[in-house]
Write a structure and sequence with these properties.
single chain; 339 residues; alpha+beta; Alpha-Beta Plaits; 2 domains; 11 helices; 42% helix; elongated
Length: 339
């Protein structure tokens, strides 16, 4: 396996340590999981000088799932488009990191199709180790041949940062347990408003070069479903719709439970037209739901009010709540207020 040469005096280990401490402090003080995942990826991009990085989390069945991808220019890479090297699986299983700055001559790496097909020259993957064990892996790669990235000092820094990231992920999961709705696993409405406020004030962003939107979704006839099929069926239907909505969101987009029969979502699109089309698709997809424990498909009417996010939380909430009220009387069940 290829290991880079040691650094010259320009690569100061003291600077690396200061950078590591700064990044680690930021990770360990971040309690929101979605935000934390992005911070971890950007931290590894900064230390490795890679072109792109992906964070993968270990699932209950032991497999890895890519949950956040980002390029060095800050562009969010859709997880559905991610082509992750099998090295990440290897690293998460063994706990042993992999470094290479010259894949071309590293036969152990170069024969892997996911690496050679992409024309990569440098690859790094490190396990994320939390207090209770390995929680996932970070994978970064690039098309440039670098001489000094994976020096002994940098390798120690990357592994220390991975340990801090693993601990931060476990802490964030504990925090998320307190801010998540137990039925839908989405955010509580109170925390949803906190996150929405950050978007309004420009303290956080969903995706570079896009517009941010908020939508409130109300499931009509939940009382009717409860009366016909029982309260458990109503809960199961809400859970099924919430799971579908969540599957249509890509971090850092997020959703929430709103009231007894409502949901909320913050999402980004390149234009009002694309945002409206996304809402239309979501309503169409949920008209008939297969719900676990219910023999026949459940008919769901989703009423949606959506609006572009403005610079003030109160104005944004007022606009989307007004849109939801108007949507209840609209034939389509949808009212969209663009930017």
């Amino acid at each position: 396996m290829t290991v880079a040469r040691e650094p010259d005096s320009a690569d100061n280990p003291h600077d690396t340590l200061i950078k590591l401490l700064t990044l680690s402090r930021t990770l360990l003080s971040t309690r929101e999981l979605d935000k934390l995942l992005g911070l971890i990826v950007r931290a590894f991009l900064q230390l490795t000088e890679a072109d792109r990085a992906y964070l993968l989390l270990t699932q209950e069945d032991g497999t890895l799932k890519a949950v956040h991808g980002e390029a060095k220019n800050g562009q969010i890479i859709s997880v559905s488009e991610a082509r992750i090297s099998s090295l990440a699986q290897q690293v998460a299983a063994s706990g042993v990191p992999v470094y290479s700055t010259n894949v071309d001559i590293d036969q152990k790496l170069g024969t892997r199709a996911s690496i050679s097909e992409l024309g990569l020259h440098m690859v790094v993957s490190v396990a994320l180790k939390g207090p209770t064990g390995i929680v996932g892996a970070i994978y970064a790669d690039g098309k440039s041949t670098l001489d000094t990235v994976f020096t002994s000092a940098n390798r120690r820094a990357l592994e220390a940062l991975a340990d801090h990231a693993g601990a931060a992920i476990e802490n964030a999961r504990l925090f998320e347990g307190a801010i998540r709705d137990p039925l839908t696993a989405l955010f509580s409405f109170g925390f949803f408003q906190v996150r929405l406020g950050e978007l309004c004030e420009g303290k956080s962003h969903l995706a570079a070069g896009t517009n941010a939107y908020v939508a409130l979704l109300d499931l009509e006839d939940m009382l009717g479903i409860a009366a016909r099929l029982g309260p458990q069926a109503a809960d199961d239907t809400l859970r099924a719709v919430a799971a579908h909505v969540s599957s249509r969101l890509s971090p850092p987009e997020f959703g929430a439970r709103v009231g007894t029969s409502g949901l909320g979502m913050c999402f980004s699109e390149a234009s009002d037209e694309r945002a409206k089309a996304r809402i239309d698709r979501l309503v169409e997809e949920t008209k008939t739901m297969r719900v676990a424990g219910i023999a026949d498909p459940v008919t769901v009417r989703l009423v949606v009010g959506a609006a572009a996010i403005s610079k003030r939380l109160d104005a944004t909430l007022s606009a989307v709540q007004r849109a939801l009220r108007e949507a209840a009387n609209a034939a389509s069940g949808i009212v969209f207020v663009g930017s």
